[in-house]
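Sample A.
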Amino acid sequence: MRLPESLRPQLKKPLGLLMQDSSVTKSSISDKIPKGALVITVGDATTEKMLSFGLTPSLQIVDALEKRNKRDLPAGTTETVLTCTNPAAEITEESISVIRKALSMTFPVRIIVNGEEDLLVLPVAVYAPDNSVILYGQPNEGLVLVHMTEEVRNRAKSIMNSMS
């Protein structure tokens, strides 16, 4: 699935609560994550920040890039590492399949994406269970914290269905 230009403005609107970088602390994040929630991070900087807070995300989706610049993968121990290919501005069937597989495994799981992971927030929102919290970066703005709801799931499905 390719992202058409016409959908880009929709993706600039966060799927959840946008927290300015300056207000992202261990306690401000921990306070917003319900006990027992499945925590999913999409993005290297977001994953690294959660790990630095001592919070190990159940599912981590990273690509060793930040704003298209190469970077080291976030340090951290994961039980399982999966890989997939996902070019920029696309969501591949392979990446959807790997996300679905990862969500059924013993956590923590890390998916290393060959390409770009940004749009993978959408299939994560479609397939993550209701007790999930998704964290991802909003470029030059901050961190988005999404509590999975049917409304979020439907919005993600709608965007994906609009992609060709």
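Sample B.
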Amino acid sequence: MNFPPRFFRRTTPLSSALSGILFMLAAMTIFSLVNVFSKMMVAAYPPAQLFFIRGFGAIATLLPFLARENFAAVRNVPRPGLQVLRMMLSVSDGMLFFTAIKYIPLADATTCYLAAPIFVTAFSAIFLREHVGWRRWSAVAAGFVGVLIALRPTGAAISWPALIALAGCLCQSIFMIVTRYVRGTSNIFLATTQVVGSFAFGGIVSAFIFVQPTWILVVALLISGVVNVAAVLCLNRSLILAPASVVAPFQYTMIVWAIVLGFLVFGDVPSANTMLGAGIVACAGIYIFIREQKVTRREPEPNPPTVV
């Protein structure tokens, strides 16, 4: 059967905002997989050492992309001060999360981190002057309520490890806002600064605290570093394409992955509360997605972002 050429063309182009949402969904999926592996490893090895080995694999993955353009992205860096701040926030976020999951269940740490969309939405309105209407505020709040219903934080949620997780959540939220500020930067460079910061910090700390790993663990961590690069690239691309307050609520999809992976890896059977909360989260995300479609049809597209 022969189809006319117009059959293969999209009738309407996919907006930057919707593309950003899809990249955020991909990032959350990959991060969820990496978090399960990290939870297994952090019980026996210092977080900084895991950062160091994983960072080596990530840097090795990114170097060919930088060399392809003769390291032009490194020489022409906009807003270097914000780039350094962003790198420090990324390292702090990762170390705080790794430390938290060493002492409390992954579900409790995830609950603390899923407060990030609340912070990002507020910070976007204050610092980025992004318009955040009552509908989006309501959807974000509903999603957060869904997370609380699904995970039912235990008594550990008020412990000092949980406070560490909340501090990491705050770092992550500010990190997302800063990434939006430097969205004209090459995506590869943004990812490189994140992994270089983790690699350097992990190397310094590992010089004082080192546990001899097995070769199997080293290989697994190197692969984890490569996979983590894919998640970082998706996250950065999401924040380049769309306003932070639009894509941030889709971090709530991590609760869905927590249910699925918790059952497959650890044998955790989700309760009725968990399923109810996950349903609320999914509905909130779908509503924001549909709402953004309507808004972007009425508003002109923003300036096209830098293509890596």
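B remarks: The chain has one domain: 35-296. Residues 1-13, 299-308 have pLDDT under 50 and may be disordered.
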